[in-house]
Amino acid sequence: xxxxxxxxxxxxxxxFALLQVGLTGGFFVLLFFMxxxxxxxxxxxxxAVLLVALIGxxxxxxxxxxLNASPLVADDPRKDIRAEAVGVFAAQTVRKLAYCEAPxxxxxxxxxxxxxxxxxLVISGFPGLAVLAWETWPSLRNTSMTAAMLDSAGAExxxxxxxxxx
Length: 166
Hints:
Layout: H1 10-34, H2 45-63, H3 78-113, H4 119-136, H5 140-150, H6 159-165
Helix pairs in contact: 1-3, 1-4, 2-3, 2-4, 3-4, 5-6
């Protein structure tokens, strides 16, 4: 039985996802101008490819997070199952956030260490924010994949319905 690591509501999960995408985007814009924007030389192609490849690696691991959910017990009261399912989904959202943010943090480090100005932030920022939004937003796709794992032992988590109703 999975442990509901968070006591969260669907609205709180949505707000968390919006907050993280907004804060990350704002942080990248602030750092971009703080580091001189595009005034520096463009980094070598191998570095640009590496930064984008790291975004892909983070997306790969974020895509696999929903596979870690253990099925819910089918004979629990309906309300408890829904709350636990949302808690499991919230915990998965935090793990997905960590996988998506790690390559972005490396891009920030490259921007500070190298003489490339804000270019590493541009190169990794746009695809990185897209992946972050795609993976953390409680869309029908994301909630359905988690619900499939939670419901695999006969329970009815109602996870998708919980996010549709709120």
